[in-house]
Amino acid sequence: MQRAQGTIEYLLIIAVIVIIGLIVVGLTISMVASPSQQLGGGISKANSISSPISIMEAVVDSNGDGLFSLQNNTGETITIIGIKSEDGKSIGFDETLPHGAENLFYLTDINQECPCTNSTPTAECRFIVTYATAQGLTKTEDYTLTVNCVADAITAASTGVIGRGTGTLSDPFIINSLQELQDMRNGLDANYALGANLDAAQTLTWNYNQSAGIYEGFLPIGEIDSNFTGTFDGKGHTISGLYMNSADGNYGGVFGQISKSAKISNLHLEDLNVNGQSNLKNVSGINSLAYTNILGGLVGVNHGEISNCSTSGKITSYIPNAGGLVGLNYGTISASTSSANATSLYTYDGYAAGLCAVNRGVISNSSASGDSTAVMFVGGLAAWSNGTISNSHSSGKVLALRAIGGGLVGSNSGSIIDSYAIGDVNVASMNVGYNTITAGDHAGGLVGRNIGSITESYASGKVDGNGNAGGLAGFNNGSVSDSYALGDVNGSNYIGGLVGYLDSGGSVLRAYSIGDVNGIGYVGGLVGVGVAGTSVTSSFSTGRINRISGSSTYFGGLISTTTPTLNQVYWFDNAGDFATSCYYNGTTNCTLIDASSSGSGWNGITYFKDLTVNTRIPMSNWSFDANWTAVASDYPKLKWQ
User: Fold this and answer.
1) Contact, 427 vs 454, CB < 8 A?
2) In the 8-state DSSP scheme, what is residue 225?
3) pLDDT tens digits, residue range 111-169?
4) For residue 419, what pLDDT is reported?
5) Which DSSP symbol is given to 559?
6) Which of 10, 135, 377, 537 could be joined to 410 by an S-S link, Cβ 3.0–4.6 Å?
7) Which residues, 6+ apart, have CB-to-CB distance to 135 below 8 Å?
8) β-sheet bridge partners, residue 10
């Protein structure tokens, strides 16, 4: 009996040992399989014990702001698309995360999901992380976690609760406060990423300048002799209410000057208030472009790359060269926008534009919607350009107080491709600025003065000027091809529906205009006047021609004089037009279509506007495979529209 009892006791001891061993093994497996559970303050996966993405740490403050450190364990590079809270609120991201990499993600207004208060050390939350694999598949991971409650999430980041990076390209410094952003002036060659939206209203009273008697606000990152050479990824975050007021009139912008190696991306500046004072004398804009007097919302002078950035607010300069996004561009600007109003109050010339005051580089897939104002050289997108502009557009109003204003570009000596402007243009006649350019001259729906090339582009805004005013280009001794203008044009002399003044060497090819043209003399439906050595080919106009005053007879349905070489050009004679012939006293090489004209499948104005226009001259000479497309009951449109 004692032997049986000893055997039972022995078996019980063995069983207890086995059970304890199984518990230990289970805990060990759990710790190895899901390390994020240990590091994240009580994190558990809702749908699986394995963790392709680990939440290494998570903190939330009483304001409802949170910082989450995610690590990629998938074995491939992924893209974090979004983090969705339990109540359905989704915060979007576009963050590439290589295998093994860890990065911060900032969330706002998550009070309901994570009700942290000053008196609670932790809070339980549930979030769904959505990411895209290298193969393009979209996947989600569901987490329930107990986060650490802190007084301030951003302070927690800067004090080491959340890691801040090392400043390398793969592990950038994370900027989570305005002061950290300003301190980038002391680290111009590092790499940075913005970890949070920033309210910059406090910069209104930063950096008081005793001698000037003004607050200068935020100081630009990078200067003439010390460019910013690193990278800055805004991660789609927004800095709002930033104030800058340069006392010396040199550079303005969050970044003063960036080098060829620098890149700025995914940053949004909202409600900017950027000002440039001036104590400089006898400075002429285009002659001073080297390195001074440049004001831009994001960057003063760009030699590098800017992509997917935006600005809103106002840029007001008492110096030349004010741009909504960039002052002077030598590099590239792509996929960027500005709705900021840009104004140069410099009384000699000016240069103001919705996106970039002066472009000597490349602008692509970008736009501007703010209004632009200066004495001279004003554009909806760029004030002056000898670079390339493609797939871009503007919609803001343009006001040049003396001369040279264009809906897209004020003065173009570069190339404009696949672009358009829809804003109104007004070139006034104030007797200020350069006295070598006649007040009120060079007003164009797309370009005020073109000595470069315009290809596959259009303008639809109304144009008001004095002389050299055109629906597309006010003055042209470059080339215009496969383009059109829709807006009405008003002026005095040399007024055209497409081009006001066609100067020596200038050409118009495969183009049309339909707006009404109103002037005093040398007025044409397509071209106001052209000199020797110019040509107009395979083009037409249909707008009404009106003489608003005076006694000049130099009016034409297509052009006012026959000096240019005309080839296969057509015009539509509207009832009541002041112009009664293609050009003053003649119709040679120019074909009339009026309301009584008809032919196979067309009648009157429909000659120019149906699905079969490609069978009729001059449109039969246009490429409807590559450049144009026919539209039912409307004029042809460009293929890319």
Assistant:
1) no
2) S
3) 777 788 767 778 888 888 899 998 989 998 888 877 777 776 655 554 444 446 788 99
4) 98
5) B
6) 377
7) none
8) none
How many other CB atoms are there within 10 angstroms of residue 612's CB atom?
Answer: 12
3-class DSSP state of 401: strand
Please tell me the predicted confidence (pLDDT) of residue 280: 37
Q: Is 241 exposed, middle or buried (0-12, 13-18, 19+ CB in 10 A)?
A: middle
Contact in structure between 468 and 474 (CB atoms under 8 Å): yes
Q: Judging by beta carbons within 10 Å of its beta carbon (0-12, 13-18, 19+), is residue 623 exposed, middle or buried?
A: exposed
pTM of the model: 0.75
Best CA proximity match to 543, nearest among 570, 513, 521: 513
Tokens, residue 150: 């802190």
- The set of residues, in sequence order, having a beta carbon less than 8 Å from that of 17 and lying 6+ positions away, is none
End-to-end CA, the chain: 99
Q: Which residues of the chain have pLDDT under 70?
A: 1-50, 86-89, 118, 152-164, 247-250, 277-292, 432-436
Q: 443 with 469: CB under 8 angstroms?
A: yes
Region of residue 117 (phi > 0: left; psi between -120 and 50: alpha; otherwise: beta): beta
Residues 401, 428: contact at Cβ < 8 Å? yes
Distance CA 96, CA 169 (A): 12
Question: In angstroms, rounded to a whole number, what is the distance separating the alpha carbons of residues 556 and 538?
Answer: 17
